[in-house]
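Re: export button greyed out
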Amino acid sequence: MTSHHPIMSKDELTAFLDREFPQIHEGGQTFFVDEIGPLCARMRMDYHDRHLRPGGTISGPSMMTLADLALYAAILAHIGPVALAVTTSLNFNFLRKPEPRALIADCRLLKLGRRLAVGEVSIFSEGSSDVVCHATGTYSIPDRR
Amino acid sequence: MTSHHPIMSKDELTAFLDREFPQIHEGGQTFFVDEIGPLCARMRMDYHDRHLRPGGTISGPSMMTLADLALYAAILAHIGPVALAVTTSLNFNFLRKPEPRALIADCRLLKLGRRLAVGEVSIFSEGSSDVVCHATGTYSIPDRR
Amino acid sequence: MTSHHPIMSKDELTAFLDREFPQIHEGGQTFFVDEIGPLCARMRMDYHDRHLRPGGTISGPSMMTLADLALYAAILAHIGPVALAVTTSLNFNFLRKPEPRALIADCRLLKLGRRLAVGEVSIFSEGSSDVVCHATGTYSIPDRR
Amino acid sequence: MTSHHPIMSKDELTAFLDREFPQIHEGGQTFFVDEIGPLCARMRMDYHDRHLRPGGTISGPSMMTLADLALYAAILAHIGPVALAVTTSLNFNFLRKPEPRALIADCRLLKLGRRLAVGEVSIFSEGSSDVVCHATGTYSIPDRR
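Workaround output, generated via the alternate export path:
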């Protein structure tokens, strides 16, 4: 019922997000699906004024939005666009101040069950290997027939 | 050094947030400090298009922003505007779909130490007693002299 | 299907835990159900050598066991002994060193759905009002017919 | 002040844990340091009656003890035995029923700061690649002179 290989391509996923979640692009698109693979996904958030806090640092809520979106996209890519997963919990550790640059979210699904999906995300400043924010999330998958 | 009674009033806190975090009001003010008390705070997020997801439900990231802001405001009210606390971790459980109404965040500080503050937040739809989102957060407090 | 009032008494719950989880009493009983109420429960962990860390403080794992047990008992009291809930996530904040005394775990269910239950626990040293450990937990409830 | 390379060997760390935390070996040693590396550590928990739940599955508290111990050991190996780190938060996701076998905890430090260390742990049944439990933890490091 759930596969460990993605059943949506990067382009199909992008088209789905554009159509169903237009509000994430409000004020100009900054979120991009970079890559989809077996049980994993990579998203990118461009540097933009609306993600900033005073001092030029990227806001916590922007990083939380990116992590949730990356996990959501990874799950969707594996279960398809019919069943809408619902976020049930998210845990974040904020480790370092992000640089004033794009952020990359590398996401890995730890479990993809019939009712529950769980994954983790590491967020980096583009071109750096230091994790600035780490997240884990759990998602409820509705009954499908 | 840290008191269990707030040392900033609701108006002082509001003025501080308006001055230091103008970006939270971008697109029209929706976040308001409703109340400050001993080790607690209440914030309110007005219902607004930019907080929505398809179907009229309020987005997870908007609730996460509200929770983080409520905890931050509660800490600030007790330690004063000099020392800027930094969010180190946040944990969220999403319990129910919020109604299409304003959200109220009730926040309680569980610990207010010299270096670390910890609190929890329950978010409700205005006029309801069902928790729609529960959060706990930890904040690092820089050294003060 | 799920009620907001307990359907098992304190004595029924105690008998169930004694029968199904005898290993929590290994080395002498230290865990006790103190109270069951609407969407809440109180458990107690007696002070005992096997819960200690060097310096006489109570170990983190002992507090985590107490929190998980309190949440589990609260859920069971409301859904009955047939359907066994499974812990899916736990989040802990350790706030203060516990005193060398019994610990009390006050637990409140935030959601008791058909498939998912979520609750929070505050752990205190007996006779004190300072929270030493705060936990939130989510539990999966198997399909019942 | 903190190095990204361990300054204690596996044997030094084992000797330190045996001396300072004898109670983790009560009832027979089941916890072993398997490996220490740059910003990582691997611990092992042997299968033993006292870690079980009815049905032969390994208990949640046993896995939580293993995760906390693995993170603690990884931090200690990098900062040395003088400064005792204190667990400030732990987050767990329980993903699958562990097999009736030894568990391996693979731990990676995401941040090793002057005051705060953060890491994540994946726990596997020995010989399997499915994560049964995933944890993240934060640890406060006392001031050193």
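The CA atoms of residues 89 and 138 of chain A lie 5 Å apart. The button fix ships in the next patch.
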